Amino acid sequence: MNLLDSFLTRAALAGLGVAVAAAPLGCFVVWRRMAYFGDATAHAAILGVALALAFDLPIFAGVLFIALTMAMSVTFLANRGQSMDTLLGVMAHSALAFGLVAVSFLEGIRIDLMAYLFGDILAVGKTDLAVIWGGTLLVLALIGWRWSALLTATLNPDLAQASGIDPKREQFVLTIALALVVAVAIKVVGVLLIAALLLIPAATARHFAITPERMALLAAGIGGAAALGGLRAAYVFDTPTGPTIVCVAAILFAAANLLQVLRAR
Amino acid sequence: MSLIDIRGLAVRLGGRTVLHDVTFALEPGEIVTIVGPNGSGKSTLLRAIIGAVQPSAGMVALKPGLRIGYVPQRLHIDPTLPMTVRRFLGLPKHVTDDEAHMALHEAGVGDLGKRQMTDLSGGQFQRVLLARALLARPEVLILDEATQGMDQPASADFYRQIETVRRDLGCAVLMVSHELHVVMAASDRVICLNGHICCQGEPEHVASAPEYRALFGTGTQGALALYRHEHSHSHEHDHPHPHEHAE
Q1: Which of A29, A143, B11, B151 has its CA 20 to 30 A from that of A171?
Q2: Taking CB atoms and an 8 Å cut-off, how many pairs form between chains A and B?
């Protein structure tokens, strides 16, 4: 019997894949204070789902396209004098609303909206798994390739510019990586909780890291532990899996902070 | 050939003309200081040189392959970003431990390698920035208000370090500063900027120029003379000493 025939094994591998992709990107989201940017991109993904279903395209493609469009229009508008804060507030919720409305237009297609909003990790098939790990490897390759330049641009755009690095190009690399992670993670935790999976492991890792690289590795470990722990807890307590994964991550975050407070005494 | 050659440069930012008709050249090995009031376009000029802003007119020509060491005005490291001094020095290009050690030494700080950037004092932080800039083996060192937040003796110290670096590495230095009296003593040439170049030349010439006095008044003259007097033994004068400053 093939190991991948078990839905629990597939779910575990899917959760690990998303955790590994989200970790290094999540660190940049934390360092660059892009939390709402991640949220907006993820919320827009529901519009991508509607689009994919309407035109009979793979969900992954539709989500990737919309997430990318969303991230790029935010970047474009932010350079045009709009406050980033307001802009993201407007776009995140408008995109979600338009997505939900668009889905309701799809007559004859019965879709489980909850699965896209909160994820359906137990329904991950072999093709989904291939898409998730393909996307994860792509994200890792992209961020690994640009790592030094991304870090320099994150520290200070002018510092990067003087070293011959174009900070706008690095921002674009992050945008692509973010769209990829959203497209990969939608099946696992759903659009509403993707940002949590980016932020919480990275924020938890911060206390225990002395270099950016270690923070990214730790975040991957913490995200993986949350995915596996959440899967197990959801099985034991019979709770929805996506939210349970985020709950476990949040508990790890709280524990890390508590430990930090105790250690400081 | 000049390291940096700027002709008729104009820069517009957000619909406002920040710089216009700026023409000057930086020659190998010289220390040039840009002074000017707030909002006079000093930082913009430096940013135009490193390519962070585009000229709206004129041109900025750099010697092909020019190696620039840049020390930004303020570097805020987000507290969520863990960063040791050693790791910082290796950005964006990897450097060996020996190179890192050497650069810290040249910048006048000891072995801070394992310390977190956010734990450093203001003076140490700026020297680490300087060390990082030196790792590029720069032909020109560009400093934007590098001593902000330091007290006066500390910044005087810092600028003496810059002179040492110039002597040891032979690089040119282009810097912006508010602390006229401290910086001017260490400069070969001063450019007084206020949207355009008001006046330029040797420090004594600029300090006594009417355009400069119109911008800064005569208040800093005493401090300049004082500084010159204290440190006159460390300067070589190939020009007559300006006796009108000796108060």
Answers
A1: B11
A2: 69
